[in-house]
Amino acid sequence: MDPTAASASSATEPTVATSTVLRAAVVAALGGLLFGFETAVISGTTGWLRSVFALSDFTLGFTVSSALIGTMIGSVAAGRPADQFGRKAVLFVLAGLFFISALGCAFAWSWPVFLAFRFLGGLGVGGASVVSPLYIAEIAPAPMRGRLVAITQFNIVLGILLAYLSNFLVGQMHLGAAEWRWMFGVMAAPAAVFFALLFAVPQSPRWLVARGRAAEARAVLEKCRAETSSVEGEIAEIQKSVATESGRQNESEPLFQRKYFRPVGLAVSIAMFNQLSGINALIYYTADIFRMAGAGTQSALLQSVIIGTTNLLFTVAAMAVIDRFGRRKLMLAGSVGYIVSLAAVAWAFHQHTGGAMVLGGLLVFIAAHAFGQGAVIWVFISEIFPTRVRARGQALGSTTHWVMAAAISWTFPIIAAKAGWMAFAFYAVCCVGQLLWVVAAMPETKGISLEQIQKKLGID
């Protein structure tokens, strides 16, 4: 029997993840937890930052988005080192960046110093958004790839919830002027744990094959597949996908060329729509939004925890069904939820109806995000590029995501200071565009190998 055929057929058979795969996926996804924590922790400190550093609406927006400048650079820069030195090596570097950023922000003695350490944390977030899902997609068996890559999104959401919960608990301790410093410093502990656990995970088998180390890749796959009879077929299929006409990988092959037009367009589109929903305005300014609706400081922090918990619960629900229902159906459901909830929040702010309507609308919004875009984006981008350009394609999607995130997070406090309802109405209109894009352009990628997805998209 042809080995590639055996591999292809095995993609449709039930697959049980081995302990090696599960351990590797969970550890790599801790990069996502730190990504989420770093992203959300600032939401509880904005009041302190305004006071300590005398920030205006404009400079507060810049302070929040300063991490996103690092995130954009980190997402652009992560792809090539991940190809050259390996996915695992880059994850070690990212863990170090998170650790340094946490302590640096906690001990920052001036606004420029604070911005510098937030920038370093942003580098970690950008790199993690590329390398964590990339690594998991390359080590996971096809029938479980969606659920395993979605562990990254689960951990991003868990990190967001932990940041909200940590901020609330620190706020309850009444630490005075040191309160915001503790909120940032807490992240150093999970960053150290992430670094230590990385020693226990294997290299990506697809990266090993691309580097001409097929024997090592075979050994990894034999540990990562419950049924080892398909390993040779999988190795052969990977080798075929990374080979050029000369039989060797061409690492300098450009990403921006005609044959990659479709995956490039898909990655850029899903990443843009992710942020045009306004999700990062909610994540970064959760407490501020509830204060705008009339909540007190501690109530706003508590409502942030409620938002984070809802996010986590619906992420778990999406993980349970993403490989059964597929990526498109989750995106369709999420798009409809986006439109309804954002329109309701815009109306509530326009009519000054109070906090209950805002909280209800935002709960529906975060549930729609967690079940749709949140669960799908990193899985989908990690699937649609062939191995030889996957790291750069992942970096492109991630960079697009963070460029848009910077624009949204910088402009939100400026717009909200004038008319908060206008921001949410704009996000609702953008989500109508997402719904139309999903219907017209988004392919389904569930349940087939990465190499078969490549063929489905018309890439030789």
The assigned structural class equals: mainly alpha
Q: What is the CATH architecture descriptor?
A: Up-down Bundle
Assigned CATH class: Mainly Alpha
Task: Report the strand count.
Answer: 0
Q: How far apart, in Å, are the first and last alpha carbons?
A: 23 Å
- The whole-number mean of residue pLDDT values reads 82
Query: What would the principal axes of the Cα set say about the shape?
Result: globular
The name of the CATH topology is Growth Hormone, Chain: A
CATH superfamily: MFS general substrate transporter like domains
Secondary-structure element order, N to C: HHHHHHHHHHHHHHHHHHHHH
Q: How many strands, what sense, and barrel or not for the largest sheet?
A: none
Sum up the structure in keywords.
460 residues, mainly alpha
What do you see in this structure?
Helices cover 79% and strands 0% of the residues. By secondary structure, the protein is mainly α. It has one domain: Growth Hormone, Chain: A. Helix 2 packs antiparallel against helix 9 and helix 4 crosses helix 20. It starts with a helix and ends with a helix.
Explain briefly what this protein structure is.
This protein is mainly α. It contains 21 helices and no strands. The protein has a single domain, classed as MFS general substrate transporter like domains (Growth Hormone, Chain: A), CATH 1.20.1250.20.
